[in-house]
Amino acid sequence: MSEKSERVKCLIVGSGPAGYTAAIYAARADLKPVMYQGLQPGGQLTITTDVENYPGYPDGVQGPEMMVDFQKQAERFGTDVRFGLATAVDLSERPFKVTVDEKHEILAETLIISTGASAKWLGLESEQKYNGFGVSACATCDGFFYRGQTVAVVGGGDTACEEASYLAKLCKKVYLIHRRDELRASKAMQHRVMKAENIEIIWNHIPKEIVGDKAVNGVIIEDVTSGKITRLDVEGFFVAIGHKPNSDIFKGQLEMDDAGYLITKPDSTQTSVPGVFAAGDVQDNVFRQAVTAAGTGCMAALEAERFLADQD
Ligand code: NDP
Question: Which fold has domain 6-118+244-311?
Fold first, then answer.
């Protein structure tokens, strides 16, 4: 460890709605929170466009703009917001040791984990090969590059439908490839997809291979009912099959389920280690909404405050 350790009352790792809400409450409770923003400051909402279901914005708001507001509100009450990624933790005793960017050690009396979740990939070799050359997991980030072209989206949930609808406004044609014969997405999202004239749903198919030369020019798909293989000519391929919680550094130290979601006590954000709280998508495989993440962020800060008060 090259630098001297720093001691803080409340350390927050992750900067989505859960982290910033925890920061607002912790700062107002005089816990002088320090937040490390992680790899994607602002979290998943920074790669989305319209947010229409967050209360308080009657006309909707752009995701990135909303996260700038969250940050400003957290900083207004004194949160020390820093760039940096928690790369290792030792939760075996208090204060907890958290290493940031593999060099800076923080000793934290309480820890709030709000590291969120990241997009899942199909696991095809060609998906990695063409990542950034036609393959993407974020239509709002990369859709612009495929204006007037033909693209495919894989998945059948709200994310896939949202991405397909977004791309339909930019692209000539959008194939939505889904492995079943019904969508998992909410009715409102399904309706939006069905209404778009240039979205074609390819039911009961899975992608087998993404093909191209320097960049993607097609996808080979298999009909799961008949085994028949066909090819779709596409220039872009968007993966939208769900998310994986960002909890790898807590493996072996905190209880988690098989998918890696941190386990918290009922009606609480308390993890299996007293003084460590988890909020937002890293512990929520059910609701996964900005507003529910913010709610659990508030709970985590209140619980951290009570935990510290009980130690005195
Ligand atoms: P979901 O888990 O809801 O959906 C994932 C989709 O991908 C499913 O249709 C699933 O198929 C399919 N899938 C999973 N693995 C594979 C695979 N290996 N190969 C092919 N297909 C696969 O994830 P989402 O990201 O869509 O949504 C997560 C949560 O976020 C949900 O609660 C959703 O409601 C919410 N959300 C809300 C939005 C909004 O309100 N604006 C926008 C985006 C998300 P199958 O159906 O067969 O399991």
Answer: FAD/NAD(P)-binding domain (3.50.50)
Fold: same for 6-118+244-311 and 121-239? yes
User: Quick one: fold of 121-239?
Assistant: FAD/NAD(P)-binding domain (3.50.50)
Token duo for residue 135: 């393959």
**Ligand 1: which residue has its CA nearest to atom 22?**
241
Domain boundaries, the chain: 6-118+244-311, 121-239
Catalytic positions are: 138, 141-142
Is the separation of the CB atoms in 140 and 304 below 8 Å? no
- Is the pLDDT at 200 greater than 80? The verdict is yes
Mean pLDDT computed over every residue of the chain: 95
Residue-wise pLDDT for 34-66, tens only, equals 999 999 999 988 877 778 889 999 999 998 999
Atom of ligand 1 nearest to the CA of 155: 7
* pTM for the whole structure: 0.79
